[in-house]
Amino acid sequence: MQARAKKLAKGLLRASTGRLGEALCPPSTKLVVFSRGRTGSNLLVWLLKSHPQIRHHGEVLGETYLRHECYRNEINRIGVVPYFERATRRFFTERVVGVKFLYYQLEPEYARRWNVPDIPNLLPVLEARKDLRIIHLKRRNRLATLVSWKLAQHTDRWEAFRAGRPSRSVQSRHSMYGEITFNLSYDECRDEFARIGEWERFYDAAFAEHPFLEMYYEDLVADRRTEMARALELLDLEDRELQSRLRRQNTRALEDVVENFSELQRRFADTPYADFFLETSR
Prior knowledge:
The chain has a single domain (2-277), classed as Rossmann fold, CATH 3.40.50. Strands 2-3-1-4-5 form a five-stranded parallel sheet, sandwiched between helices. The termini are far apart. The chain is globular, with a radius of gyration of 20 Å. Residues 166-174 have low confidence and may be disordered. It is an alpha/beta fold. Helix 4 crosses helix 5 (80-87). The chain has 13 helices and five strands. It has helices at 2-24, 41-49, 63-66, 69-78, 80-87, 108-114, 122-128, 142-155, 186-206, 217-222, 224-234, 254-257, 261-267; strands at 29-35, 54-59, 96-102, 133-138, 212-216. The longest helix has 23 residues, at 2-24.
């Protein structure tokens, strides 16, 4: 009970401070990041958070929050739309306040799972809010997304950090997942590839009239400075170098993780998904 009271008190303090900040300063720019999990969204959020004029709260409807009853009760008490408004309210003098949603976190199945029935009401509101700045982060290789998701589920390790000062690189020669390997079925891969494609097309269309930036994980890793300059331009912020302590968790080639990689490569050879199985994929 004491821990729950502290969390609620902290939330109320943040809400009241946010109202004061909005009263004293112009309204903040609101940023929403949409993505599939394991597309580099944590890296993007940490880079954004390193900018002194950005406050980014990450997955405000993520499992990390919703597994705590006090958060679920608070969202159900005030409603998911006011909860979003509160989360994106200026806290102090920052110019941009952001949140992140993984696609599935706005769907009815997720709402039922966590007993927050109001969640599906948020997406139409976001679509109607043309003042929102949108970053849609994707990963070209959907097999890499699926493999990363499986590895994280197997180990329950979703982030890894470097020791010491923030780094300009997410590369590491050591895999955080050790030597874990597994098989993937053809149907599982096909269904996941198709589902990601449906999500991406939906969010591209739903937010086409918003200030909108499409980003790819592969480009963010290859040329972080250029990609983050594009993000800061979207947010009307001056370009500067951004940093993160996150490190890449899996450094092995996909064919070294997926035991039946060659079989899947043959079966997908004449499909639109053939490029996901190039031997150089990671």
